[in-house]
Design brief:
The chain has 621 residues and is of the alpha+beta class. It folds into 4 domains: 303 residues, FAD/NAD(P)-binding domain (3-Layer(bba) Sandwich); 135 residues, Elongation Factor Tu (Ef-tu), domain 3 (Beta Barrel); 92 residues, Arc Repressor Mutant, subunit A (Orthogonal Bundle); 52 residues, GidA associated domain, C-terminal subdomain (DNA polymerase, domain 1, Orthogonal Bundle), CATH 1.10.150.570. It is built from 21 helices and 22 strands. Strands 1, 2, 6, 7, 8, 9 and 20 form a 7-stranded mixed beta sheet that branches. A 6-stranded antiparallel beta sheet has the order 14-15-16-17-13-18, with no helix packed on it. A 4-stranded antiparallel beta sheet has the order 11-10-19-12. A hairpin with a 4-residue loop joins β8 and β9. α2 runs parallel beside α11 and α12 crosses α17.
């Protein structure tokens, strides 16, 4: 009935969708298996993509040929660039999406790809032979053969939903949990754990008093995620801001004795940086209010996502507390919030290419690895899809360094350190964040995607080459341009900057705080005329490169030093127990993780600099 597929992807959430298109666009024949074709790429939590560090990941996915950015641009209802008051390394794009259009666009793009087939059914097990994954087993007893399998099960593995004292199996509201896979993997020797996440109640926007809420509009000149020719959002829908208050807190406390979080029924650890509202008022008892974001679910629906009000308290308590928020006095719920527990597998059981160490040709991506967030999941799916294709074609794995992408930081952290709580990306996790900005993701990564042979990269590379040339032209012009006090002092005074006393290079002025190329062109006709030939994106990129040139060079020097260690490879069968000069903890951790390089070994907790020196001597360095 079925041919042997090159890659079978189990699960069609954000990780599964990116995995399927990545492998298919490299030429693999892919089967995407999902329990429900109608929930492909479902935004099961908030209707938004991007945010701090997450926005950088979406742009990196796009630069590598993934679809998250394209789908977001086609379905967004609002765009905001976060952290504009900080340096450009911190700028992070974020978009509100139309939840239904987002899923529909993803499905449309998947179905347009002739290398992707679909199968709607629960996958209950894997077909393993000689420690190699050779297919999947479905609920009705079918065995579908494959050269490799990628598991992207999200919150469905033995998922358990909690609302107050009620609990029932489910991978998402209204959908059943997936069983069988965890049990088989544990039998094979994998270490499983439990994690928890949650979601807030959905509210009927027609029942809110919008006049009492603070408006949060989108950017005046909205940008987008994809480096391709996608549309820019028009006539954006605003979000709003509300706050909890003392009455809300008292109403919530009435349900604490029935809370599955506080009475021990929930065993899994939840995301530290996205706590439930009951957790917030319990842990931060000194605060008399907490901010809530009132986010529309789409263009044409009144359904509202109340970001910041995640809860697993009984539904009557949620309803009572909800109605004590200013502006929510007559609020109606579409459905209550809930917590969900699910199985995950410690990512230290993976190689750096996301293939499992125990079973060849079996890859994990997304929440199964202990991460949280669409963006983190999508990036792992993309990398797993690429690496599954490379593995079955006996090619070297594709690994992004920490200095090359936030995706590299994410996977390196997971594989080397593991995680005890849902892992979320932040800019602070990246030590080279001046290099890893959202504005240069295409320059960093699209050439790599082209080299890998990912489909449709020729057109992207033309744009990259043009952008690089434009960047050089602007930098050259600014570095040569000299300006006089007569030309610039009026502009500098209006900007609150010290006046010039003599003729200086334009680049010197640009290096001052709060001075931009767009501001400088108002004082210099020649500069304005020159910049008129270039796009806003390229001008901003050139400005950042010139303004932060010293910091960029310093960071690059650090990268070059670290890369020397990344180029010293360690064999998979290296016997660390034989090296008695290593500490006992280092021998244990190195044997467990099996690092690919000395650089990777240096980032494993418990491996000291002296242990690295011993390894360098051992490999002849």
């Amino acid at each position: 009935m079925f041919p042997e597929y090159d890659v079978i992807v189990v699960g069609a959430g954000h990780a599964g969708c990116e995995a399927a298109v990545a492998a298919a666009n490299m030429g693999s024949k892919v089967l995407l298996a999902t329990m429900n074709m109608n929930t492909i790429a479902q935004m099961s939590c908030n209707p938004a993509m991007g945010g701090v560090a997450k926005g950088q990941i979406v742009r990196e996915i796009d630069a590598l040929g993934g679809y998250a950015g394209i789908v977001t641009d086609h379905t967004m209802i609002q765009f905001r660039m976060l952290n504009k008051s900080k340096g450009p390394a911190m700028w992070s794009p974020r978009a509100q999406s139309d939840r239904m259009l987002f899923a529909a666009k993803w499905r449309e793009m998947l179905e347009e790809n002739t290398n992707i087939d679909f199968w709607q059914e629960m996958v209950v097990g894997l077909v393993i032979k000689d420690n190699r994954c050779i297919g999947i087993r479905t609920g009705i007893g079918l065995e579908i053969p494959a050269k490799s399998v990628i598991l992207t099960n999200g919150t469905f593995l033995n998922g358990l939903i909690h609302i107050g004292e009620k609990q029932f199996g489910g991978g998402r509201a209204g959908e059943r949990a997936a069983t069988g896979i965890t049990e088989q993997l544990v039998e094979l020797g994998f270490e499983a754990g439990r994690m928890k996440t949650g979601t807030p109640p959905r509210v009927d926007g027609r029942s809110l008093n919008w006049d009492l809420l603070e408006v949060q509009p989108g950017d005046e000149n909205p940008s987008k995620f994809s480096f391709t020719d996608t549309p820019t959002v028009q006539n954006q829908r605003p979000c709003h801001i509300a706050h909890t208050n003392a009455d809300v807190h008292e109403a919530l406390k009435e349900g604490f004795d029935r809370s599955p979080m506080f009475n021990g029924r929930i065993k899994g650890l939840g995301p530290r940086y996205c706590p439930s509202v009951e957790d917030k008022i319990n842990r931060f008892a000194d605060k008399d209010r907490h901010q809530l974001f009132v986010e529309p679910e789409g263009w044409k629906t009144p359904e509202i996502y109340l970001n910041g009000f995640s809860s697993s308290l009984p539904e009557d308590i949620q309803y009572k507390a909800l109605r004590k928020i200013v502006g929510f006095e007559n609020a109606k719920m579409f459905r209550p919030g809930y917590a969900i527990e699910y199985d995950f597998f410690q990512p230290t059981q993976l190689k750096i290419n996301l293939e499992t160490k125990l079973i060849a040709n079996l890859f994990f991506a997304g929440q199964i690895n202990g991460t949280t967030g669409y963006e983190e999941a999508g990036s792992q799916g993309l990398m797993a899809g690429i690496n599954a294709h490379l593995k079955i074609n006996e090619e070297e794995p594709f690994v992004l360094k920490r200095s090359e992408a936030y995706i590299g930081v994410l996977i390196d952290d997971l594989v080397n350190k593991g995680t005890e709580e849902p892992y979320r990306m932040f800019t602070s996790r990246a030590e080279y964040r001046i290099l890893l900005r959202q504005d240069n993701a295409d320059l960093r990564l699209s050439p790599m995607a082209k080299k890998l042979g990912i489909k449709n990269m020729d057109e992207r590379m033309e744009v990259v080459h043009t952008k690089l040339q434009d960047l050089k032209d602007i930098q050259k012009f600014i570095s040569k341009l000299s300006v006089t006090p007569d030309e610039f002092n009026a502009f500098l005074a209006s900007s609150g900057s010290a006046p010039l006393k003599q003729k200086v290079k334009a680049q010197t002025i640009l290096s001052r705080p709060h001075i931009s190329l767009r501001g400088m062109e108002t004082a210099h006709d020649g500069l304005r005329q020159f910049l008129s030939k270039y796009s806003e994106e390229t001008i901003h990129l050139a400005e950042t490169t010139l303004k932060y040139q010293g910091y960029i060079l310093k960071e690059q020097e650090m990268v070059d030093k670290m890369n020397r260690l990344e180029e010293v490879y360690l064999k998979d069968d290296f016997d660390y127990h034989e090296i008695l000069a290593l500490s006992s903890e280092a021998r244990e951790k190195l044997t467990k993780i099996k690092p690919r390089t000395i650089g990777q070994a240096s980032r494993i907790s418990g491996v000291s600099p002296s242990d690295i020196s011993v390894l360098l001597v051992k490999v002849g360095r």
